Amino acid sequence: MTIVNAYAAQNATTPLAPFNFERRDIGNNDIQIEILYCGVCHSDIHQVRNEWGGSIYPMVPGHEIVGRITKIGDEVKNFTVGQLAGVGCFIDSCRVCPSCVANEEQYCDVAMVGTYNSRDKAGNPTYGGYATQIVVDEKYTLHVSEKLPIEGVAPLLCAGITTYSPLRHWNIGKGHKVAVVGLGGLGHMAVKFAASFGADVTVLSTSKSKEQDALNLGAHHFAVTKDPETMKSLQGKFDFILSTISAQHEYNDYLNLLTLNGTMVVVGVPPHPSLVGAFNLIGKRRSLAGSLIGGIKETQEMLDYCAEHNIVSDVEVINASEVNEAYERMLKGDVRYRFVIDIASIK
Ligand code: NAP
Ligand code: ZN
Ligand code: ZN
Questions:
Q1: 269 CB less than 6 Å from ligand 1?
Q2: pLDDT value at residue 347
Q3: Contact indicator for 158, 39 with CB cutoff of 8 Å
Q4: 188 lines ligand 1 (CB under 6 A)
Q5: 306-340 in b/e burial notation, b at 16+ Cβ within 10 A?
Q6: Ligand 1 centre and the CA of 296: distance in Å?
Q7: pLDDT number for residue 82
Q8: Which of 35, 81, 122, 301 gets the highest tally of CB atoms within 10 A of its CB?
Q9: What is the tens place of the pLDDT at every residue in 215-242?
Q10: Which-ligand-closest: CA of 121?
Q11: Please, is 100 exposed, middle or buried when counting C-beta atoms within 10 Å of its C-beta (0-12, 13-18, 19+)?
């Protein structure tokens, strides 16, 4: 066992604060990683504040982890000490169900083990990446290129794969008119990927001040969703909408923007449900779908694509002591475009 320094939430209402806990020693197939950077995902806020229910405390959040390997188990085959490695939203799954066999462990029929706020197969709570070190089975660990700035790579482990996966699944590319709703951590990665795949990309945002950034990120158009006239003018315009909105909103407002046979994929997870009007779907044979992160194989494919095409997240690096303030800024939509914790600030 190793004592690890971290930042944790003790309950749903008090600020995150320094904490330490014991990490297990490495098993035969495990890798021990000294964490260098960890991204701050809006899912961290939802879970820290128990907005989805069932939160386990104390909670060490963080599932956008990049670090350097300090130890490997005797049977580890694909990693060596000194390499960079990444860990995303889950660290285990049943490994034998059809989803796991199909490399879509995030949809495991039994239970994927979350990187934090979850329980491992022995029933112990899992602790995430706002911490100096993590131990993970190599099967659930990603290779990270030395070519890219690693603080910008960390958010790829969740924000990156969560947007890459649906764009790939729905074969988005040249000839598609895509709208990305919400320009935050997920949204800005969606813009980068959709533009890189050749789509015509529009950002739909509540923040007029993000217009120039949206264009710099690769979007071709920008519209403010608070303006009813603009929303009216966009009706029926998009083949594909990726919604990353983290807070309460009406799906109907966006479904109307889809063209015939268009699809809206929801990746944002507001705590409360939205009503969906049947007419908004049947009128133009529209589809409403959802998507959850991505499997390990596809996450590696995404990381390799980013290394090849020089894609990273636009980040604001913070000390761990600034994380509570970062949460407040994210809740105001004031993030450009991902906070990433420099884990050296915890040591
Ligand atoms: P984020 O960085 O805080 O960005 C969310 C953006 O949504 C904001 O920047 C804002 O963009 C927009 N927004 C916020 N409140 C809104 C409202 N009331 N109406 C319209 N737009 C609003 O969050 P994130 O880390 O990208 O995460 C987004 C959501 O995805 C969260 O719910 C998170 O839990 C979820 N998530 C899901 C998955 C998955 O696998 N499906 C994975 C990771 C995260 P503008 O300023 O541009 O309007
Ligand atoms: Zn996340
Ligand atoms: Zn499974």
A1: yes
A2: 81
A3: yes
A4: no
A5: bbeeebbbbbeebebebbeebbebbeebebbbbbb
A6: 23
A7: 98
A8: 35
A9: 999 999 999 999 999 999 999 999 999 9
A10: 3
A11: buried
Look at residues 130, 49, 65 and name the one whose alpha carbon lies nearest to residue 322: 130
Is residue 310 predicted with pLDDT exceeding 90?
A: yes
3-state secondary structure of 64: coil
Q: How far apart are CA 229 and CA 235, in angstroms?
A: 10
Report how far ligand 3's centroid is from the alpha carbon of 164 (Å): 22
Structure tokens at 89: 């939203």
The whole-model pTM stands at 0.98
Each residue's pLDDT tens digit, 29-67: 999 999 999 999 999 999 999 999 999 999 999 999 999
Which has the closest alpha carbon to 324: 5, 13, 4?
13
At 214 the pLDDT is: 98
43 lines ligand 1 (CB under 6 A): yes
pLDDT surpasses 90 at 1: no
Ligand 1: which atom is nearest the Cα of residue 186? 26
How many angstroms from the chain centroid is the CA of residue 84? 19
Ligand 3 (ion): which residues have CB within 5 A?
A: 93-94, 97, 100, 108, 110
Give me 293's structure tokens: 């992160």
Compute how many other C-beta atoms are within 10 angstroms of the C-beta atom of residue 210: 23
Quick check: 118 and 275 in contact, CB under 8 A? no
